[in-house]
Request: fold
Amino acid sequence: MENIIEFKNVNKWFGKLHVLKDINLQIPKGEILVICGPSGSGKSTLIRCINRLEDIQKGEIIVNKIPVHDKSASLTRLRADIGFVFQQFHLYPHMTVLQNIMLAPVQVKKMDKAKAETIAMEKLDRVGLAEKSGAYPAQLSGGQQQRVAIARGLAMSPEIMLFDEPTSALDPEMIGEVLDVMVNLVSEGMTMCVVTHEMGFAKKVAHRVLFMDEGKIIETGTPSDFFDHPKTDRAASFISMILTH
Amino acid sequence: MLADFNFRVILEYLPLFLTGLRSTFLISIVSIGLAIATGIIACACRISGIRLIKYPAIAYIEIVRSTPLLVQIYFLYFGLPTLGIRVPEIQTGILALMLNSGAYIAEIIRAGINSVEPGQIEAGVSSGLNYIQRMRFIILPQALGVTVPPLLGQAIVLVKDSALLSLISVAELTRAGQTLTSERFMPSEAFFTVAFFYMCIYFCLKALADWSQRKLIFREAY
Reply:
């Protein structure tokens, strides 16, 4: 299958800190990829490079045939095709749920408002929050805000969805509702890259797990191989840590 | 002291005070309007990535903030004519107040813009919104909200600062007090009245500031 995302010898520095070291990665269309690793391992940076929220200093990233590393590449189209869900949701607090979801379709895709609203309601229904369309983010729980953020990403009908620790900022009882929504998305055939430590989610839906440490990809494998028979000591000790946690 | 207080002379000079009050009011309104425009432009330049406009904006803001307003007023009052620009005192005064408050307002607006969580800007970026769209739909609606109370605070400062224009003989409220003092030598009566009128303006603006604050708090809590 063709690769929708491709990293070739990617290197990135924050000042003197070398955060991504010679990353080579191919993500085929439709893959559900889970990225895990200790904090500071570069996993968030890795997915933030995909829609160029972060610049890279060396190497190539090709996403949807667009060379993302090329400074002259048109990023608007690229970004419009990639949904991004943040750890801290980042909904716009001065807009209602519906306005949050409709903003990008109307402004970036120049969709007419009636159509954007239909799509927004459809996506909101998808995450089980249709009745909250008129609410403001501050009136919602963390789990609900994150589900709205997912609906906001889906409203652009993206080919790729990126999730940066989508459940790390949530109370334990809200993690389930967000993961359920994400599991439901799998059937849509979108490519998904999820930075998470939720082993249950990874085992249930991921095609592949990627383990990072100190800016390098240490190992990759199917969820069952990775979690049950890790090849490296580093991965084994990491897995035992999240299990006892 | 209060027994000697001469209310009759205040009444006698009331038309002069009211004319002064009117001047102070008009000078302040015009100055604050111009200062807001100046502040918006200076702030836009200040946060721009283009060095050619960013550094002059920084220089302007820092020069104004590091020197006393009275010095700035004298600088324009004596400096402009040497450049061959002859304008009435009142316009020199408005120019000084505009430039002075404009620098502070630029920083107030910049603080408002910076108060918007960077994550929201990233959310806008990653959904494909361009710089202008992010400004218009995400940043400014939130920044302007938090900016209103400090802007009204700056307006209060400007009204009181306009008293310094009396020193370049602009016929405003404080000047009326000086006139009464020099004609009748009754400084207590003169500046009591002047202070009273400034307080009236202050309380009107403060009421407006409190009202806008309540509005904003209400909006944040929804």
Remarks:
- Residues 30 and 191 of chain A are 4 Å apart (CA to CA).
- Chain A has a mean pLDDT of 93.
- The interface with chain B takes residues 51, 53, 75-77, 79-80, 82-84, 86, 88, 90-94, 103-104, 107-108, 136, 138-139, 149, 152-153, 156 of chain A (CB under 8 Å).
